[in-house]
Amino acid sequence: MTLKKIVFICTGNTCRSPMAAALASSIFAKAGLAIEVTSAGVSAWANQPASRHAISVMTDKGLCLAAHKAALVSEALFDGAVLALTMTSTHKVILLSDYPNAKDKIFTLGEYVGKNTDISDPFGGSLEDYRACAEQIEKLLMLVLKKLR
Q1: CA angle 38, 120, 8 (to 5 degrees)
Q2: How many structural domains are present in the chain?
Q3: What is the CATH number of the domain that holds 29?
Q4: I want to staple 22 with a disulfide (CB 3.0 to 4.6 A). Which of 63, 77, 124, 127 is the partner?
Q5: What DSSP designation does 10 have?
Q6: Which residues of 113-146 are buried (b: 16+ CB within 10 A; e: fewer)?
Q7: 113 is in which domain, residue-wise?
Q8: Residue numbers annotated as active site
């Protein structure tokens, strides 16, 4: 299966989806898969940086979010994308309503790998909340990797 682009989507694009994109990019590259990974938010304020805890957790994993700038979901985001993986079922509902032509690409991250789970928003939480969120995302991304192979 040749993939071009996977988009990760959350609310503000400062915590979950940037962490998911950074983790996925690393996991896919280590596996030898050439997949473009990006992220956006359904209610993002453009150009906002990643949250400090998200930056810290990714730094601990050897990944960098320092240059991340939040982006709002747009029609153009789906161009070339084969998957749009949302952090929650609410995000999925919003996308299906706003972008019905992309319905075959839109899944929650958990749903895509057969898990009925949403990724809780750590925004405003502790560093431990962010670590737990990143671990949950990483476990699901390992299942995504297995599915893509």
Answers
A1: 10
A2: 1
A3: 3.40.50.2300
A4: 63
A5: E
A6: beeeebbebbbeeeeebbbebbebbbebbeebbe
A7: 5-148
A8: 10, 16, 121
Q: Could you tell me the two tokens for 69?
A: 């700038």
Q: What is the pLDDT along the chain (149 residues), one digit of tens a residue?
A: 456 899 999 999 999 999 999 999 999 999 999 999 999 999 999 999 999 999 999 999 999 999 999 999 999 999 889 999 999 999 999 999 999 999 999 999 999 999 999 999 999 999 999 999 999 999 999 999 999 98
Amino acid, single-letter form, for residue 17: S
What does the block give as tokens for 65?
Answer: 């979010």
Two tokens, residue 50: 């990643």
Record the tokens describing residue 112, joined without a space: 């895509």
